[in-house]
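User: quick one
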Amino acid sequence: MAAKRKKKLGLKQRYSMLTRGLDWETSYQKMDDVFPYDNYEGIYIHDWEGWEDPFRLTMDAYWKFQSEKEKKLYAVIDSFAQNNGHLGITDARYVNAIKLFLTGVSPLEYQAARGFTHVGRQFRGVGPRVACQMQALDELRHVQTQVHSMSHYNKYFDGLHSAPHMHDNVWYLSVPKSFFDDARTAGPFEFLTSISFAFEYVLTNLLFVPFMSGAAFNGDMATVTFGFSAQSDEARHMTLGLEVIKFMLEQDERNVPIVQRWMDKWFWRGTRMLSLVAMMMDYMLPKRVMSWREAWDIYFTEAGGALFKDLERYGIKPPKYADIATKEAEHISHQAWHIFYNYTHAAAFHTWVPDKEELDWLSEKYPDTFDKYYRPRLEYLDKEEKAGRRFYNDTLPMLCQVCQIPMGFTDMDDPTTISFKVSEYKDDKYHTCSNGCKDIFDHEPMKYVQAWLPVHQIYQGNCGGSEMEDVLKWYKMNLGADNLDYNGSPDQKLWDEWQAHRTKV
Amino acid sequence: MSLEIKTSIIEPRRQTYSHIAKRLGEDKPAARYQEATWDLQPTTNFHYRPTWDPQREIYDKSLTAIKMEDWYSFNDPRQLYYGAYTIARHKMMEAEENHFKFIDKTSMMDLVSGEWQQKVKEFLLPLRHFEWGANMNNCDCSDKSYGAAISQVALFAAMDRLGMAQIISRTGLVLDDSTGKSLDEAKLLWMEADMWQGVRRMTEDSFVLKDWFEMFTAQNFCMDGVVFPLFYDYFDKEGQEHGGSALSMLNEFMQDWGKDERRWMDHLLKVTAAESPENAALLSGWIKEWTDRAIEAFTPIARHVLGSKADEVMAEIRTEINKRAAKSGIEI
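Assistant: Done. Structure below.
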């Protein structure tokens, strides 16, 4: 008897048979009741079947790949802890980047997980739904592996002990938090434009790559291993981001202006949040990867330029204010660091004046601006500190109603004048830091007036009391350990002791 | 004799994160599950209301009538966080994959009687749509639920249901020599056959439930409480009499998964019911309503497969569900 010849399915066909036919047009309940949220944003979808699956992963393959990656990653995390991996970093100042990551970025991974779960249920097409669900699961992976790999640092350094509480309450963390709250409270298509496209596709190289390369350059094996391990997840997420944009643009031309406005908005909101990364790259890494300016040129101007060239055929233009953001790349890291230098007594990480060699590096990387505007100020602060007058700013800053960064950024053509814009809504005045943020406010004032602005809340007495110390305790900060200058901190003291111990024969 | 390698010990300044230590009652080393789960979800100072539902906050306890003092009081007895989850599922899937390979290599499916193969196409293959419905419901619960503990379990379950829908689909492809014809026919049955309309109606009705805890209970305790024993125990046994060993092998993933889910569900209900008589009363009402519906919906399929034994089997299944509920402190 001849053996039956068995048909072998191609990947695309197999995926399609196993996944695409699973959904159905409901008839006992109306489709609009089952999927109530996917048509109020004004996006027209005529054919959900037109969705090209960006990655054709079935669950068996997903479990296989991901479990293998997890096994390897946890082996490294375990070995890092067992061998006191924290002693191998360049300098304890580096850990402040980790503090910013765990309190500012890791909670966003959790928000992403929940956000993708939401849209993973709400789209009526099975293709986008499955892609979003897998990303939700990946994002849960990212927050959990980050919590695990940074757990070791928490055992030896300050400022990492209460990330969830701090993320919900501390003033500067409302910058990333409000960013994600904004995306999550938007409709499903805007959510994907903001997170999958603007964030994961356009800007991810400016967040993920600097942090992970920073980790590699500074001997942080735990974080860099996580970074490598997450890379293939990120590649999938980027593909999803591009697919959703093309899908919307191809379905109906009435979608084009809506998508353009979202791109403008989320590009600007993203660059504002990245000012935290900018200062991390230029100031917080003892061993620097590249300057923020260089990263911007490579990852936004060049890579982003090619991308928007590609989208031109749909009638999409590069994001509004991209030119301003490019000008800002000369200034933003210095201005952001200065804000935190002012307020580091109210922050859960340390700041410091860079040493001479580091200042020289900045002078070299920013020949047009650093010596002229920023170096003299840092040298002055250094002199003050050495004279026993480390400067801390005791007043509270006004925050931008949209991005929530203290209004310390300047007009880019006049770096000695603070930039601020005013809008009126229902007889109240609202202040924003830039035209980018003002546009966002003016388009949806009813949304942005709801913002939980930390400084307003402190003044209204909602944050633990009227004294700075009350507020910091309410933030769960350990005073004199988590906050203040790096010089004189317990982190520094211990680090110096460990180093002395290591060099003794 | 044991060898002791000398390492340099540096005393840690703390053993775990503060919020974890608070729940542990002292600063001591924590389990990976605990650090990956407890207090992960934001709880306060949300900046904006959802534009898609301005009545609620981004994370909102009032999306269910169930009230818990602490939404982290039911920890997963399986201690699943992402890493443990993917590793556990891959292990189950590896075994399943070997079954598929073995059946392919030995042409074992040919030993199943033609009559039973046809039955399988009628009862098992349309169930892939029910699994997809379970994916949607668990995804919805993961979205609306409060606290990372339950939300992550729901997300894992959602992905598992997609995985099981795909296993069932693959079974169809084994039966139809990879043409996909059996899957198209099964979808037609799901959409139009009288026997399936009760299940489809129930599934669609569950999609629009407002209370996510009710949805969670309806899907994962009541509907699954019927489906898993009915399809993977009773139907499986029936199949044995028709040379259905190949199909039994392919049921293994679902059998193991069903047991795994029971452990978590029974624990969840026990803790939730013990919290207050109000919670217990809510759960009791939901379990009664949705068990009745699930029994009713699946009875025509049971009769189609088991014939005259069906009513007795359904009664046994109901008794088992009531027993599980009673063990969790819920009177039906």
